[in-house]
Design brief:
Oligomer: single chain
Helix content: 55-70%
Order of helices and strands: HH
Shape: elongated
Strand content: under 5%
């Protein structure tokens, strides 16, 4: 069974097309965008605000 799986994987690797320059560019841009978005969101969530919001009486500490 393992031999059949290895043979099928070898055939698939021979037939698989290589990633083009446009594909590499799109992949790098999309990963960079998602990484930047995650970093900005975590930064916004984990940093404390410099000033307290002005709340109406009875709603704050």
């Amino acid at each position: 069974m393992l031999a059949l799986i290895q043979e099928a994987a070898a055939k698939q690797a021979e037939q698989a097309p290589e990633l083009t320059t446009g594909g590499w560019t799109m992949m790098i841009l999309s990963i960079g965008f998602v990484g930047t978005l995650v970093f900005c969101c975590y930064k916004k969530i984990l940093t404390s605000p410099n000033d307290e919001p002005d709340l109406p009486g009875g709603l704050g500490p």
